[in-house]
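User
New here, help please:
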Amino acid sequence: MKEESLPTRRDFIKTATVVAGITIAPGILLHTLSPVIANPQGKPLDQPVSSQVRWGMLIDTSKCHGGCSECVNACKTEHGLTEQVRPEVAPQWIRKVGLRNKQTGKEYSLPVLCQHCEYPPCADVCPTGASFRRADGIVLVDRHLCIGCRYCMMACPYKARSFVHETLTAQKPHSPRGKGTVEGCNFCVYRVDHGQIPACVEACTQAGYQAMWFGDLNNPDSNISQKLKEVHSTTLRSDMRLNPGVRYQGI
């Protein structure tokens, strides 16, 4: 019975994500950006978001170094997460996690962020529809609708969301935040809609590590799709059958 009710809930969320005019998503407006690394699958701004595209990421853990924090620092700078707040409430949209194979002793270092699931638990439990999945697979939070109940934080199996406790003064126009609301990785949606790649991927690429790939999972000719054909990849918590948009190579 529960499985049958999920599509209806998700269909409602998808319907609620329709955007118009210059609004990318509720609470996020377009701003002119200077392109750095282009995203060849980016759509023209005058075209609506479509389910024909599904944005995703591939992370190669063999190239992700434990001492590197380029992606984490880039995320903090891009979204204004650098304000001095109490450590216990500091937001983390992306964090480095260390894993160790108990049998072989091999250690891995990998970035963990919102996995942008096809069936996001955060959206299923949200009582106001503030957590939702865009038609192109990007999971977002409408801060105008978020009441700070934090049900989505409890439902997320990846611990990928933060709650803003403090008054914010150094917000970025392209990435608005709000006290008393939940937030998390949005794949730098405004950059994607402007034909760019997320800040974390750009930083990793510019640092020369090439550990992060981003693109359209539905396009068989995209760089990420071609890469996924060549390598074995997996998802975190695959047992939950959420079909995340973020995949990992080497674990």
Confidence is low (pLDDT under 50) at residues 1-36.
